[in-house]
Specification:
1 helix; single chain; alpha+beta; 5 strands; DUF3107 domain-containing protein; 74 residues; 3-stranded antiparallel β-sheet; two-stranded antiparallel ribbon
């Protein structure tokens, strides 16, 4: 699933593919914004870890869980 995160005062967005479900990412973001969490921790499909300051979140876009197809489709 593709995840794109906008960070305040940053011209670029953070984009990665996650092995988590859309519901897991959504509940993680909602819990961090509702609580006193200082940062959000995301792990992509390759095992890289991303820490994003919760106060600097501009938006979180959660893509579809369907993988992209490569090649020609008949």
């Amino acid at each position: 699933m593709d995840v794109r995160i906008g960070i305040q005062n940053s011209p670029r967005e953070l984009s990665f593919e996650s092995s988590q479900s859309a519901e897991e990412v959504q509940t993680q973001v909602a819990a961090a914004l509702a609580g006193d969490a200082k940062s959000l921790k995301f792990i992509d499909a390759k095992g890289s870890v991303f820490l994003v300051p919760a106060a600097a979140l501009a938006y979180v876009e959660i893509g579809s869980e369907e993988s992209r197809r490569v090649g020609f489709v008949a």
